[in-house]
Amino acid sequence: MSTPVSRRAFLGGGAAVLLAGGAVAYGLAAGAGERTAPLSPPLSPPPAPRVRTVWRDHADGPMPARGDEGVPFVLRAAGPVGGPVVRGGALDAELGDQRAASYVNQDLGTAVHRVGARFAFVPGPGTSDDGSLCLAAWRGALPPDGPGVIEAPVHLVVTPRRWIHSIAVENELVELATGAFDRPLPTDGSALRVDVTLAGDRAEIALPDGTTTTVRDDRVPALPAPVACWESYRHAPGGAAVRLYETWAA
């Protein structure tokens, strides 16, 4: 499914495409009208991270200017955002209780082949499905409204109940696969893990419920992107908040 979006519509890295309107059916167990991605065999070994930050190793306070390996962070935001700040061993975007997004980016200098995180959903100010984490890699402009064209070979949105994997081509999100978790992910701060590796035309995805899937698209190799991104997004009041415990990319 192709979804034309303006640069401003990348507020939430396009998570609004997942969360608003219910236009697409989700599910790992297929039902009438649902579009699903089949589970895959075990994933191939991912490349070793080139950047990795363990947030529990940082004292409470403003987000540091650089990651643990020394690569600078580039921050973007839209809507009411009070952070990011380090608090209690995690990075918190401090999104206001309305539509808002915080983008934590690192420029690796060459194409990103992997992006992942240890993270959690927490209940304040709400536990609805209107909160999400997005893993992405950007080429060209940076969302939400950087000058130029936004493109991405990987754009994975995870909410407490579902996930959607897309690419972005010339400011257009192209949905490739979606699914719903058999059980909603916890929203009590429990650590979860999500990891995406790009290999040729494949995105090999380790989802936070322990399942894996591989999504193929022949446009992926033509979208080398040097900027890894970890995005916290709230689509509407009450949406679950995201805490980042560890971030990495290769």
Automatic annotation (TrEMBL):
Residues 39-49 have a biased composition (Pro residues). It comes from the Bacteria. PROSITE patterns: TAT. Residues 35-54 are annotated as: Disordered. This is Uncharacterized protein.
